[in-house]
Write a structure and sequence with these properties.
The complex is a heterodimer of chains A (about 350) and B (about 350). Chain A has 14 helices and no strands. Chain A is globular. Chain A has helices spanning about 1-35, 40-55, 60-65, 65-85, 90-100, 120-155, 160-170, 175-190, 210-245, 250-255, 260-290, 295-300, 305-315, 320-345. With about 350 residues, chain A is mainly alpha-helical. Chain B has a domain at about 1-100 and about 230-340: P-loop containing nucleotide triphosphate hydrolases (Rossmann fold, 3-Layer(aba) Sandwich), CATH 3.40.50.300. Helices cover about 30% and strands about 25% of the residues of chain B. Chain B is built from 11 helices and 12 strands. The chains are: A mainly alpha (about 350), B alpha/beta (about 350).
């Protein structure tokens, strides 16, 4: 009972801390996305320019005396300024943005539309999310687990030709995925013509679900391969070194002396004690997955969050940028929170709340 | 004393090895363990032979880097990745375990016949498994006991070595250093092996805990049919437990004697230097030391390996490596000083 209360208290404390961190992160994004209030000036001059252009086209208004014309211009500008709420001081609005963002009331985009024609940021984001998830989760899961498995095998065959090959190839990860993507497109789409150049599904999309899935799969091959090529060698190298370090622990040697089979040693004496760092890596990998890969998505014209972010930045569309970062911040916070709990569950040395020894 | 001399006779080919299997717990013949390093081949264990009768304990003494731990590792076949040469014979209870395949050795020798208490006890227990489970684990693997049975046996072992029974459910980090070492001792005993290798079992512990552990070891020795190989720097403490002493130098065995004479009147000049370095309580004695460093095990001296540091060396020492001679009390010593010819 006492234990339970302590765990509850700890969880609550961690939760509050994470919410505060997320709020700070989101507020910083609001400041950056609105350029610390400078965006208001840009907007105001844009509005004045727009109004000017509209009036230029109107023959009747042009004939009015300048003083009267100025009055009309000022009225129209005023009206639009009110529409955009530009009269409220920026600092007040920044906190209103923050409150809205934190309650996931993401508002309307200024320039970006969703494919279905909506300006709701939430709709725009939910439309892009599945595409990014499909690409990034597939690619990352393949890289993560194949790297982990290969590394475990390599750590057992330290110094073998395969091991040396992986070590030698690990610098290839210095080049990003899109770099490999360009070559893959060149080879498989341009020269061999066996796989599509980009996109997520062929146009027009197949009606049958199975054909649709196959088409998506076909479009997925190149970007996933690009991601795999860019990540696999350094990943294997990292995990192999990680396992090598942990397999020279005294308790591993002891397990060997005890006559455990190598599979049991791997499972209980190498993987089990190293599970917390492995889980951390996995969690961090999931977080990057949410953001998408901006350039890779562009190279493969993949309709994901990464491309959306780039588009929003180009168009100065603050609500979309903030919306995307808010979702990211929340996911980061939740992941860290879950990691904390997983750590405490997996590693007895990590105590929930510093409460001394566990009762004997 | 005759148990030691038998080795010498075998070496000199005077007596053919009579297989008195039951008498000997361990017979090591010409054991070599060489490692490959970037600088060359390290002869960590080079042609070591000795015998040990049942229920007897031998202390292996020597400076750091003289091959003590490597010898223990070679006997238990706990080899690093860079092994260059691993040859010789290791007869455990009358069976040459060197001829066994790795898998056979794992299933029938590891922890069933020979267990170990390792150096650095702090880290010898898996941090995320309960101590009791780790102690009981060999029973489940080798004797196919159920978890409950195995834990019951582990509990008995805990009682024997003086660990509170409820520590079975604790994790290693919740135990003090002394308790951890006792738990490992319980683990080493749990399958009732014939041989336990103690590799610096108390080096990281305070004096009182050391004394406690050694008392527990003495109790165990009295109660069980078990032999110890005790590897240590701590010469004075080892004399408490050992029946015989082996002195190693530069990967080779230089003296093997009974504890009665080995500690008080060693024959080999290196052994004498080693014993003279032990401080005595409240006695105004000048502690001796042996000048110089042990030779490189990559290119050891061609004659006697100790010759460059030996205060009593003469021409022959640098020319040919000495062979074993039998001393007055049955000691075996590898030194030209005792050559009568």
């Amino acid at each position: 009972m006492d234990n339970l209360r302590r765990i509850g208290k700890y969880t609550l404390l961690r939760g509050v801390l994470i919410v505060i961190t997320v709020a700070i992160g989101v507020y910083l994004t609001v400041i950056i996305a609105t350029m610390g209030g400078y965006m208001d000036k840009i907007m105001a001059s844009q509005i004045r320019e727009q109004v000017g252009t509209i009036l230029q086209g109107n023959e009747e208004l042009r004939k009015l005396p300048p003083a009267e014309l100025k009055l009309i211009i000022d009225q129209m500008v005023e009206q639009r300024m009110r529409e955009y709420n530009l009269h409220t001081p920026w600092i007040v609005r920044s906190f209103r943005y923050l409150a809205n963002a934190l309650t996931l009331n993401l508002g309307m985009a200024e320039k970006v539309y969703s494919d279905s024609g909506s300006r709701q940021v939430r709709l725009i984001l939910t439309e892009r999310l599945p595409a990014t998830l499909l690409l990034m989760v597939t690619a990352n899961l393949i890289v993560f687990f194949s790297a982990l498995f290969t590394a475990l095998v390599l750590s057992r065959h330290y110094g073998s030709p395969l091991d040396r090959a992986v070590v030698a190839l690990s610098p290839t990860s210095a080049a990003p995925a899109w770099f490999y993507g360009i070559f893959l497109i060149l080879i498989f789409a341009s020269v061999l013509r066996v796989l599509p150049y980009g996109g997520m599904v062929s146009i027009p999309p197949p009606k049958e679900p199975l054909a649709y899935a196959l088409s998506v799969l076909k479009h997925l091959v190149l970007p996933v391969s690009a991601w795999f090529l860019a990540g696999i060698f350094s990943s294997v190298y990292y995990w192999r070194t990680f396992f090598l370090i942990y397999s020279s622990e005294d308790y591993v040697e002891m397990a060997k002396a005890k006559g455990l089979s190598s599979r049991a040693i791997e499972r209980r004496y190498i993987l089990r004690p190293t599970l917390p760092p492995i889980i951390t890596s996995f969690g961090l990998m999931l977080i990057t997955t949410w953001m998408g890969a901006i350039i890779l998505e562009n190279v493969f014209t993949w309709p994901g969050l990464g491309r959306l972010l780039q588009m929003a930045i180009n168009l100065y569309d603050a609500p979309v940028i903030v919306g995307e970062v808010v979702i990211y911040a929340y996911l980061l916070g939740i992941t860290v929170f879950l990691l904390d709990i997983a750590y405490a569950a997996l590693d007895p040395r990590v105590k929930l709340g510093a409460g001394g020894r566990r009762p004997a | 004393m005759s148990d030691i001399t038998a080795t010498a006779k075998n070496e000199q080919g005077m007596v053919n090895a009579v297989d008195s299997k039951d008498d000997y717990l361990l017979r090591v013949k010409d054991l070599c363990l060489h490692f490959r390093t970037t600088k060359g081949i390290v002869q960590a264990v080079d042609g070591v032979s000795f015998e040990l009768k049942r229920r007897r304990s031998v202390a292996i003494l020597g400076e750091s880097g003289c091959g003590k731990t490597s010898l223990a590792r070679a006997i238990l076949r706990l080899l690093p990745r860079n092994v260059h040469k691993f040859t010789g014979e290791v007869w455990l209870n009358g069976t040459d375990v060197m001829k066994m395949s790795d898998e056979w050795f794992r299933q029938n020798v590891r922890w069933v016949k020979a267990s170990m208490v390792s150096q650095a006890a702090m880290n010898a227990l898996n941090p995320v498994l309960r101590v009791g489970y780790q102690v009981a684990e060999p029973l489940m693997i080798h004797l196919h006991m159920s978890k409950e049975q195995a834990l019951q046996r582990a509990r008995e072992m805990f009682r024997l070595v003086g660990v509170p029974e409820d520590f079975l459910h604790r994790y290693a980090f919740e135990l003090s250093g002394g308790m951890r070492q006792r738990a490992i001792l319980a683990m080493a005993l749990v399958t009732r092996p014939d041989l336990i290798v103690l590799d610096e079992p108390t080096s990281a512990l305070d004096m009182l805990t050391q004394a406690n552990i050694f008392n527990a070891l003495k109790d165990i020795k009295r109660q069980f049919d078990v032999g110890f190989i005790l590897i240590t720097h701590d010469i004075s403490t080892s004399s408490d437990l050992a029946d015989e002493v082996i002195i190693m130098y530069a990967g080779q065995l230089v003296e093997h004697s009974l504890a009665q004479t080995g500690y008080r009147a060693p024959l080999h000049p290196y052994a004498r230097g080693l014993m003279a370095s032990v401080p005595t309580l409240r006695e105004d004695k000048r502690l001796e030391f042996i000048p110089g460093q042990p030779p490189s095990l990559i290119s050891p001296p061609s004659g006697c390996r100790f010759a460059p540091r030996c205060p009593q060396r003469f021409e022959r020492c640098a020319q040919e490596p000495p062979t074993f001679r039998v001393g007055e009390h049955g000691e075996l010593v590898k030194c030209w000083l005792y050559a009568k010819d």
